[in-house]
Amino acid sequence: MSLGRAGIEDDIFEDAIRGSFAALGWGGSIDWSDPKYRTYDEVAARWRQQPGEEKASGNRGDVAQLWRFREMNEGDVIVVSQGNHRFRAIGIVKSDYYFEPNAGNSYHHRRAVDWRLRLQNPLPVSEISSGDFTQISCYRVADANLKKAALERLLSTVSEPEAGAILTLPPTADHPADSNAADKGRQFFRVGYGPDFHDVAMVKRSLNDGFVATNACRDKDLSAAIHTPTSTAVRELHGTEAGSGEPYDAATLLKMKPGDVVLLQEGRDLTRAIGTVAGGYRYDPSDPDGYQHRIPVSWRNVFPAAVSTNHFHVKDPKSGEAVLRYREGVRTDAIAAAMDPRASAGLAAGPSPSALATGSEMPSYPNTFETGSAGSARVDQFVLVIDEINRANISKVFGELITLIERDKRLGMGEAIAVTLPYSNEKFGVPANLHILGTMNTADRSIALLDTALRRRFTFEEMTPDPSLLEVVDDIDLKGLLTAINERIEYFLDRERQIGHAFFMGCRRKADVDAVMAHKVIPLLCEYFFEDFSRVAAVLGQTDGRAPGFLESRELRSPFGGGAAEARRSWRILPQESFTAAAYQRAIAISSAKPNEDTFAMDSAFPS
């Protein structure tokens, strides 16, 4: 559906995103809350009671589109279009229809929506649908047109925060705007468990069940203090003696509002996870560990190795409070980067995890980000493969990326760099979950010209042929065959021109092996030796040129007659149907034989 006309009514779209709802202008100022209006006929009949609408068509937007909006169910997906060819947001319906009489525009008809993705740069419709959108404000996309796998991946992504702009991230249905709060900005909290924040069991519970909690002032529901969350109010409600530090922790927990940021500690100086508050205070008297006061949290990122808390705070206060609200010194740019799923793998780890009370180290969790009530999912990893990278003009292909692809320059890293794109003037950086693989053939001497700057930024890993990956196929020992051929190639030429095991990986029967030899291996050997078939024959184990094998030769008569002229031989590649088991056995066995008069006369066969 559309939320206002793109470029003309963008305020409607922005209000909907901030308020976590979808809105429709069709349907006038009528309250359509009555359940009977879930049917098309009832909507049409009611609209035709409007003055001047007695003969209104059933296709009119006030009827058809209003009914579609009423027809939605909780859990349905809404894609917000921007014109007919792009989309700019995706969300999930979280409530039934409701009427908003005080809407400042004509968009009175609402549904609460959990906006999972808000795009600063709208994407093409082709990413999620095989057909374009239409001008209709609200309609159902045909299932046959949907690219469901792509849509599901986008739904598991959180909105992209701009570096340093975490305070102005739009709320979602789980993070509604708090119009009564005096503090309109997001707050930042630190939470730890146990002595020196080393209670491993509670950290695991918080991460697995999605909450933070305190065991201060237990055995008393503190709901009555949420409107005045001060230590004095908590002390009076709970009856705690003056001077106790417990009311402070409990009161600070009560200050948390949906959308606020929470850092979960591992020890005094390390942070294990970062998340956002997803709901209000809850009292659970049955908590087995006495952590009865809790706040639900959507964990945006759980770090495999704990991150130094100073990465998120200029100078972390060394106070002993288990629940602490940061009042200043927060590094909002670092927090925004940590909450971005594309860069979540790129945070610099802190010092080695401190010793825990249990004597063991903190368990490792995968990087995660919010996916709603379904829990958490792994951060998507993306791989860019550049084949034959050495053949490209590196400076033209990479440009300023030559610096941005460095590990410590990625988004979320300690020395992250972003550049301004020349046409859009937008900031651009390379996320840490993008992996770049460049391939090249070392036999191609153009590798020698590879840009030195690129060599410094890539890790070079040699991938030599691995015969152990091959099996015996129809009594042909592919491992032995590849090993024998490559030994001879290295003897005559060099190790860079060895035959790769991939040639034979797909062979399942002798006919497959015959085809590979006839159409790939032998032609490549002919190219290596510049059509010198005597050497090709030697590599294939046909040292005398006459025994059954892959090649056939015959002696050419001298056109001058007599026996004084030098004898020459004519060679041809036999049809693959002629390749015998004996030819393969000979090619393998000859590698272990020493050259002698019967097998191979090196000097006569290969004159210098």
Q: Which percent range fits the helix content?
A: 10-25%
Q: How far is the N terminus from the C terminus?
A: 78 Å
Number of helices: 16
Number of strands: 22
**Mean pLDDT, all residues:** 77
- Overall 3D form: elongated
Radius of gyration from the CA trace? 35 Å
Q: How much beta, percentage-wise?
A: 15-25%
Class of secondary structure makeup: alpha+beta
Protein model, in words:
By secondary structure, the protein is an alpha+beta fold. The protein has 16 helices and 22 strands. The protein is elongated, with a radius of gyration of 35 Å. Residues 158-184, 341-378 and 591-608 have low confidence and may be disordered.
Secondary structure blueprint with pairings:
Blueprint: H1 10-19, E1 21-24, H2 40-47, H3 61-71, E2 77-82, E3 86-93, E4 98-99, E5 109-124, H4 148-155, E6 188-191, H5 200-209, E7 211-214, H6 231-238, H7 246-254, E8 261-265, E9 270-277, E10 282-283, E11 293-308, E12 323-326, H8 332-338, E13 368-370, E14 376-378, E15 382-386, H9 394-398, H10 401-404, E16 419-420, E17 427-428, E18 434-438, H11 452-457, E19 472-473, E20 476-477, H12 478-492, H13 510-528, H14 533-539, E21 551-556, E22 568-573, H15 581-589, H16 602-605
Parallel strand pairs: 6-8, 15-18
Antiparallel strand pairs: 1-5, 2-3, 3-5, 4-5, 6-12, 7-11, 8-9, 9-11, 10-11, 13-14, 16-17, 19-20, 21-22
Helix pairs in contact: 2-3, 6-7, 12-15
